[in-house]
């Protein structure tokens, strides 16, 4: 009997030790790997040099409004998002996928042949001033469209309620017919 008590105490001690060990949660999401390049403060994915060799970091967000900016020094394959702060500014940098460039006119990476010439990008920096602006005419048109959609939705609800009540009446008739 002492042997059984010894085994029980040993087993409980083992359980207590296992439960006292720290548990690590395993994330199902892969963690993106970024490396700090030797050049300035650009923080780009590891494969950035496969897309473009010799990435230079000369772009500055100093005295720029919030917006998206093509990096002409990197032939528009890199673009930056600038966020002015009370003291300086914050800059996020991105690289376009292989065989694409940042199109300053549309704020997206596009094929080189369907993009504006990279050297003209600075002319389009003023488009950043339009970010967040509301145009009164479009706003009024949106309101009118909203009113029309609300009317159409209420009409559809009325039609669906009618068809639902017809369907339920038909189902009730069918049930009665089956009983007889």
Task: Explain what you see.
It is a single chain. By secondary structure, the protein is of the alpha+beta class. It has a domain at 48-127. It is 37% helix and 17% strand. The strands form three sheets. A three-stranded antiparallel β-sheet has the order 3-4-5, with no helix packed on it. The chain has a two-stranded antiparallel ribbon with strand order 1-2. Strand 3 and strand 4 (78-84) form a beta hairpin. It starts with a helix and ends with a helix. The relative contact order is 0.08. Mean pLDDT is 77; it is low at 35-39. It holds the Pfam family CBM_14. GO terms for molecular function: chitin binding. Residues 1-20 form the signal peptide. This is Chitin-binding type-2 domain-containing protein.
């Amino acid at each position: 009997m002492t042997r059984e008590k010894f085994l029980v105490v040993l087993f409980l001690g083992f359980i207590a030790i296992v439960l006292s060990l720290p548990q690590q949660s395993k994330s199902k999401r892969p963690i993106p790997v970024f490396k700090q390049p030797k050049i300035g403060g650009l923080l780009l994915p590891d494969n950035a040099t496969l897309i473009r060799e010799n990435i230079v970091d000369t772009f500055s967000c100093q005295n720029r409004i919030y917006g998206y900016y093509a990096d002409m020094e990197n032939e528009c394959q890199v673009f930056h998002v600038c966020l002015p702060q009370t003291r300086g500014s914050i800059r996020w940098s991105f690289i376009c996928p292989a065989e694409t460039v940042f199109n300053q006119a549309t704020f997206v990476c596009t094929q080189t042949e369907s993009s504006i010439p990279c050297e003209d990008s600075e002319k389009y920096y003023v488009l950043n001033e339009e970010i967040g602006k509301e145009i009164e005419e479009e706003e009024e048109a949106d309101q009118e469209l909203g009113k029309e959609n609300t009317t159409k939705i209420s009409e559809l609800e009325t039609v669906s309620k009618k068809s639902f009540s017809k369907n339920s009446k038909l189902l009730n008739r069918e049930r009665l017919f089956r009983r007889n």
